[in-house]
Design brief:
The chain has 352 residues and is an alpha/beta fold. The chain is built from 14 helices and 12 strands. It has 2 domains: 131 residues, Aspartate Aminotransferase, domain 1 (Alpha-Beta Complex), CATH 3.90.1150; 212 residues, Aspartate Aminotransferase, domain 2 (3-Layer(aba) Sandwich). It binds pyridoxal-5'-phosphate.
Length: 352
């Protein structure tokens, strides 16, 4: 019966998870694994978020608030008077925005190498994907992007970029916004770890969406909750395209409580800044400059996959970058975790 499955899913592999390396570590009998493959905050969620989630858990016999008011109010209280949409992770937001705007056969332009889900989501929508490669140093060539993406319905730029770590300046983003005819989805999953400020652009541009997530700095990856700053015109259409009651009540309450509870976020951001420098100083391979909570490392002449396997056998799980289309096979991506995890990583990689 598999003939029934759509050809777009048969042609390409799906999202690549970091689980395989964890399995290797476990096979080698290692119980205390350094988890540095998924850019999560190693600290558990804040007590306020936990308490909010526990309280709402008692009410899950009822459907959630379809307007997600608890989180919308928290976002407005925290950021001010902007327009927002929410979703099942930022991934859910990305998928719904594509569903809202892109007819089958229309174009989604993606600045690559980058996070793989944009192309998967666009493909699932029957979109035509065009990729626009970054420069050799992974910066975005705005002129080239504008030329190639001019007529795309949606253009996607990730800043700070996963997996390369570098950010695109607000001036460059502004230039792109003025040059293209469609919408720019600027993925800000890691913006809290950078000094970039794109919010001022929201007031000036009708075609900018800033994707955000609670999965990284806010320690809520398991609750699958994301949001975006949008222009005023978008939310009613987004809500029409989305599934009913998309965001569950527990996740919404936890996220609303986590947002203003800054202590842990501030602590982790300081940890990230400390370790970006330490990785650059202590790892014997070239570490690319990063504005995110991970770094990309050039492990040539080794291959990324081989290094990931070898580290996994020693209890350190990192991500090979081979599956990022448009990137050569000698890079790995390593998150900033707890001190012992990062130290173990440095020790093991320097043995290669
Ligand atoms: C982690 C990540 C996301 C998705 O986050 P979720 O909210 O967990 O879906 C989106 N974009 C990038 C670049 C990411 O690295």
């Amino acid at each position: 019966m598999e003939r029934l499955v759509r050809s777009c899913y048969k042609k390409k592999s799906g999202y690549v998870f970091a689980k395989k390396a964890e399995d290797i570590a476990r096979e080698y009998g290692i119980s205390k694994i350094a988890r540095l493959a998924s850019n999560e905050n190693p600290e558990p969620l804040s007590p306020a978020a936990l308490a909010a989630a526990e309280e709402v858990l008692r009410t899950v016999n009822r459907y959630p608030d379809e307007r997600v008011n608890i989180l919308m109010n928290a976002l407005r209280a925290y950021y001010g008077d902007y327009h927002f949409v929410t979703g099942v992770g930022m991934d859910g937001v990305i998928e719904t925005i594509i569903r809202t705007l892109v007819e089958p056969g229309e174009t989604v332009a993606i600045s690559t190498p980058t996070f793989s889900f944009y192309a998967l989501a666009a493909m699932g929508q029957g979109a035509e994907v065009i990729t626009v490669p970054r420069e050799a140093d992974f910066s975005v060539d705005c002129k080239k992007l504008i030329e190639k993406a001019k007529e795309a319905k949606i253009t996607v730029v990730c800043s700070p970029n996963n997996p390369t770590g570098n950010a695109t300046t607000a001036d460059d983003v502004s230039e792109i916004l003025e040059g293209i005819e469609g919408l720019l989805f600027l993925d800000n999953a890691y913006v809290e770890f950078s000094d970039c400020d794109y919010l001022s652009l929201m007031k000036k541009h009708e075609n900018l969406v800033l994707g955000r997530t609670f999965s990284k700095v806010y320690s809520l990856a398991g609750l699958r909750i994301g949001y975006a700053f949008t222009p005023r015109w978008l939310p009613p259409w987004y809500n029409r395209a989305g599934t009913p009651f998309t965001v569950n009540s527990v996740s919404a309450a936890a996220a609303a409580a986590a947002l203003p509870d800054k202590e842990r976020a501030v602590r982790y951001i300081a940890q990230v800044k400390r370790w970006r420098t330490r990785y650059a100083d202590e790892v014997k391979f070239p570490v690319l400059p990063s504005d995110a909570n991970f770094v990309m490392i050039d492990v040539a002449p080794h291959k990324g996959d081989a290094v990931v396997e070898s580290l996994a056998r020693n209890g350190v799980v990192v991500r090979s970058c081979r599956s990022f289309a448009g990137l050569s096979d000698h890079y790995i991506r390593v998150s900033v975790g707890e001190d012992w995890e990062n130290e173990l990583f440095v020790e093991e990689i320097n043995k290669l």
